[in-house]
């Protein structure tokens, strides 16, 4: 008797490899039973089920997206529902609106949020805190991070900075969001060896129509 068995191939997730902490995201994804690969060319996008936009410098990445002719194709794919996850600079690039950005900074868009670049201020360029991310306790590392200043009704808030005396202006600020197939964190789970945020993204990729069609 012939048994018709369909074995699902692991999803293929790209990491935008123009600048930033690409390697750390590749390592985190590799822990999540997916095929992870660096991506630099528009043709490579069609082989993917989802993409990670790493932390780094959003103005530099945005300029390189333009130079590598990736800006328009990636923007169009994300608009059509392609799963994307951005950490820090990646969150800035996925936001529809940026405060304190540069005039020539391009947005990929996808998240109906307003982010403020370098929001945590010069005196606290980097800080770490434990926070609640959708019911899980996560140790979050912020490095010259943005925060989310406004969200539309479509956006799910996944995490805020705990309200403590040391948090100052950052207390209660939104630092992780999801809208449809787009996920973003102002912090860097790729730096703490905790792959739960990447797993959340992989689950989004597995659940998206795009990966079923592939
Ligand atoms: N760690 C980061 O990704 C920093 C983001 C950076 N400050 C920017 O504006 O792009």
TrEMBL record:
It catalyses: aldehydo-D-ribose 5-phosphate + D-glyceraldehyde 3-phosphate + L-glutamine = pyridoxal 5'-phosphate + L-glutamate + phosphate + 3 H2O + H(+); L-glutamine + H2O = L-glutamate + NH4(+). Pfam families: SNO. SUPFAM superfamilies: Class I glutamine amidotransferase-like (SSF52317). Pathway: Cofactor biosynthesis; pyridoxal 5'-phosphate biosynthesis. Keywords: Glutamine amidotransferase, Hydrolase, Lyase, Pyridoxal phosphate. It comes from the Bacteria. One of its GO terms (biological process) is pyridoxine metabolic process. One of its GO terms (molecular function) is glutaminase activity. GO terms for cellular component: cytosol; glutaminase complex. InterPro entries: Class_I_gatase-like, PdxT/SNO, PdxT/SNO_CS. Its EC number is 4.3.3.6, 3.5.1.2. Catalyzes the hydrolysis of glutamine to glutamate and ammonia as part of the biosynthesis of pyridoxal 5'-phosphate. The resulting ammonia molecule is channeled to the active site of PdxS. In the presence of PdxS, forms a dodecamer of heterodimers. Only shows activity in the heterodimer. This is Pyridoxal 5'-phosphate synthase subunit PdxT. It comes from Lentzea jiangxiensis.
């Amino acid at each position: 008797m012939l048994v018709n068995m369909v074995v699902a191939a692991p999803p293929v997730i790209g990491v935008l490899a123009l600048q930033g902490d690409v390697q750390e995201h590749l390592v985190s994804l590799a822990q999540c039973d997916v095929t992870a690969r660096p991506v630099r060319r528009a043709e490579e996008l069609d082989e993917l089920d989802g993409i990670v936009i790493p932390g780094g410098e959003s103005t530099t990445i945005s300029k390189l997206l333009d130079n590598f002719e990736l800006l328009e194709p990636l923007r169009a794919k994300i608009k059509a529902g392609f799963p994307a996850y951005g950490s820090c600079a990646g969150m800035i690039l996925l936001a529809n609106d940026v405060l304190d950005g540069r005039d020539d900074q391009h947005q990929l868009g996808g998240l109906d949020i307003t982010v403020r670049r370098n929001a945590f201020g010069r005196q606290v360029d980097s800080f770490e805190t434990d926070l609640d991310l959708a019911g899980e306790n996560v140790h979050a590392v912020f490095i010259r991070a943005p925060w989310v200043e406004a969200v539309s009704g479509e956006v799910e808030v996944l995490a805020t900075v705990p309200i403590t005396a040391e948090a100052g202006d950052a207390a209660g600020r939104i630092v992780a969001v999801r809208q449809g197939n787009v996920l973003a964190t102002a912090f860097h789970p790729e730096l703490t060896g905790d792959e739960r945020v990447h797993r959340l993204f992989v689950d989004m990729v597995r659940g998206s129509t795009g990966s079923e069609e592939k």
